[in-house]
Every structure is written in structure tokens, then in C-alpha cells.
Amino acid sequence: MSFASLGLSPALLRAVREQGYHAPTAVQSAALPPILAGRDVLALAQTGAGKTAAFALPLLQRLVASPPRPGPRALVLAPTRELAVQTAQLLRELAALLMHRPRVALAFGGVSINPQLMALRGGCDVMVATPGRLLDLLDHNGLTLAGVECLVLDEADRLLGQGFADELQRVLAQLPARRQSLLFSATFPPAVEALAAQLLREPVRIDIEEAPPQITQRAIQLDRAQRLPALRQMLRDAGWQRALVFVASRYTAELVSDKLHAHGFKAGVLHGELSQGARRDVLAALKDGSVAVLVATDVAARGLHVDALDAVVNYELPRSAADYTHRIGRTGRAGATGTAVSFICADSAENAESHFRLIEKRQGQRVPRERLPGFEPQAVATEAQATGGIKSTTRKSKKDKLREAAAQAAEGTRDGH
Ligand code: AMP
């Protein structure tokens, strides 16, 4: 399958080449023809499947094919600012090669509204926004949605999951009834189903679940105190060019990043309390290689899109199975292979083992437990010894750092060094 055979115009074919895409991904092959034909589309696609281009390309092609009109003529709603920024960026890069270069406006919350209002003064053809800020702009008469011909809901499950349902309905109420609607979602819970039923007219359904991202999942049992040394060893040995390490809090993110930095790793940090500028800088640093390990919280990493991420490490487990899917989906994108490593700590406050079992159950996949030589968990090993599961005690004479860290974690454990 080629982009040309899907009906893309020569200018967009050139834009696609400039993006470095050789052939369409599965969701692009399936979505381009019906979107170009003006049909509504409901696409079940994981992040990383190439879904942004799957709607951006045909949307732009349809836009430039008909005479200019006051805009916005297309509205893309995204759940997070990161996703909105990335989507607008792709749209702008693609649009740059078109004759009547469509203007792409971008709006998201958490920053001053004034520059966004100013930017809209000259009008726009495509509006990419998070729902809350779009409503603010509408309240300020920054734009009208009366001319919208095409609506895209990106990551609809997250849009609904993040409490945007009411805001979404308020936006939808302002859209003209006659329009094309495209809904992309990684999962299809009842709320998304209801939204699809409300929004879409005889949609073409696309489900590309048969081509999941190629992610090798690993679950490593170790003690909490061993996580940092184990992570350092993995980073050194695995040959990952770029890795994303997930933690549960801003505090841990800073801590882990600082410790890695102190050990000579090119570490960066991404969490919700960073300024927009700082986030942009660290993402740029990850892209250009000056940061190789990004330590992030879930909030900050939503919708994050980094090419060629070799590995995701769950330094701390995510709260929900949905977050797990989302986290590990940051690697193995667009046909590349990736590794997702989860640390399972028997001595963590929550019961990590049963929590991870729940995650496995939800995703319908079992991940074999492993131990890293030199980092075997004391708590679990002791228990196994008691039941005859582990034979020798020689593991106690391992490296210095193991002893050090084990000593820290030793309160409550019985064995003596
Ligand atoms: P998305 O699912 O839109 O987040 O895209 C995931 C990644 O796939 C992005 O980094 C895109 O640059 C990349 N990508 C999208 N389409 C293609 C394609 N046809 N060939 C290669 N990479 C692609």
C-alpha cells in the first residue's frame, strides 16, 4: 500500500515524504479513503499507530480542495495540551507545503488566554484545542464554530475520562449539524460508545487492534531500595538511546532524575508543575539527544509523543490498567519495537504484586516475573527460602552497592550480613 494509492494530492505526498513516512500505517490505510470521501469515521487506534496523520492528511486535503471560507472549518479537540501541541505541529508542517496554506490555530489552558485571542484575530482554518480553553475563547468571542465542516475528537476516551464530558457537550452544541465527524479512541468504553452514537452518522468503523505495537513487557521483582541501582544498570547495559521512566509524584521524578544525573546519565524531568517553556525544552532535549532518560509523571506524559523511544520503565506502577496501557504505548510506536519494564516491589506500601496482577488481567496478558542477578529481592527471597523455593544463600556476597542498599531496606527483614 502506498500513500499515492490512497488518493493523496501531490503536495501532501511531498509533505508525507518530508515527514519521513514511506508507507501508510494500518490506520492510515483504513482511514484515509473514507475521510477523503467525506464519511464519518470511528477509529479504534492505539497511540503510536499513526492516527494523527490519519486524520490530518485527509482533513487538509479536503480543506484546500474547496474554496476558502471564514474559519475555523475544522476543529480538533484533544484531551491535553501536549497532544494539542503535537497535533497542531504536524498540521502546520503538512500545511506548509500546500498552495493556500491553511492556517492552524492552537489553544490550551494553563497559560494566558490573551496571546491565543490575539492569534485568532486574523482568523484560522483549523483550530486545535483542549475543550475548556476553547469554551473560554468562545466566551470571549474569540471565534465562532458556525463554519466548522469537520470535527475531530482525538483520544476520545481520555477526553471523556478527564472530566471533559460537560465541556464537550457545550462545544458540540455550538457546532453546525451538517459536518463530518471523526472520532479516534484507544479504547471503547460505554461512554465513548454513547458519544459515537450521538455524534457520528453511519460511520465507517476502523479497528486496527490486529496490529498492536511491538512491545516486550518485562516485570522485575526487586526491593524498593534497589530500584535506582537496577535502573542504572539497565540503562547502561540495555543500549537504550531514549528511555522514559515513570514515577508517581513530582518529588520522586526530581529525585530520580537528580540521582541519575549525579551518576553521569543525561537525565531530564517532566511533571505537571513545570512551566510550559520548561516542558517544551525538555521534550526538545529528548528529541535532539541531549536528554536520554526522561523521568516523568503520568500527568505530564499524557499524549506525549517522542519518536524512537526504546523503553518505558515503570519505576513506580501506574494506578490503573488504562494508565499502564497508555504508559507502555509510548514505546513500540509506528512499527518500531520497544521494551516496557515494570518494577514490582514486594516491600512497597501498596501490594505491588496483586496490583500488577490486576493490570495483567485487564490487558489480558501475563508478564513473566524476573529477577535481575545482583538485585534479587530480600523480602521475597526470604519468604521463598522458608518454603524451600530458593537454594543457596551465596547471593548475599554480591556487589557493595547491593549491600549498601539492602542495609537501607533492612528494617524488618531478618537476615544478617
Ligand atoms: P501517532 O499515533 O499519531 O501518535 O503517531 C505515532 C508516530 O508515528 C509519530 O511519531 C509519527 O511521526 C509516526 N508515523 C505516523 N505515520 C507514519 C508512517 N506512515 N510511517 C512512519 N512513521 C509514521
Give the helices and strands, then pairings.
Elements: H1 10-18, H2 26-36, E1 41-44, H3 51-65, E2 74-77, H4 81-95, E3 104-107, H5 114-120, E4 126-129, H6 131-139, E5 150-153, H7 156-161, H8 165-172, E6 180-185, H9 190-199, E7 204-207, E8 214-221, H10 227-237, E9 243-246, H11 250-262, E10 267-270, H12 276-288, E11 293-296, H13 298-301, E12 311-314, H14 321-328, E13 337-344, H15 352-363, E14 369-370, H16 378-386, H17 400-408
Parallel strand pairs: 1-6, 1-7, 2-4, 2-5, 3-4, 5-6, 8-13, 8-14, 9-11, 9-12, 10-11, 12-13
Helix pairs in contact: 2-3, 3-4, 6-8, 14-15
Bound molecules: adenosine monophosphate.
What does this structure look like?
With 417 residues, the protein is an alpha/beta fold. Helices cover 41% and strands 15% of the residues. The longest helix has 15 residues, at 51-65. It starts with 9 loop residues before the first helix and ends in a 9-residue tail after the last helix. The relative contact order is 0.11. Residues 21, 24-25, 28, 47-53, 305, 307, 333-334 line the site of adenosine monophosphate (AMP).
CATH superfamily of the largest domain: P-loop containing nucleotide triphosphate hydrolases
Tell me the CATH topology of the largest domain: Rossmann fold
Tell me the β content. 15-25%
The strand count comes to 14
Largest sheet: 7 strands, parallel
Count of helical regions: 17
Domain DEAD-box RNA helicase Q: 1-29
GO molecular function: helicase activity; hydrolase activity
Family: Belongs to the DEAD box helicase family.
Organism: Pelomonas lactea
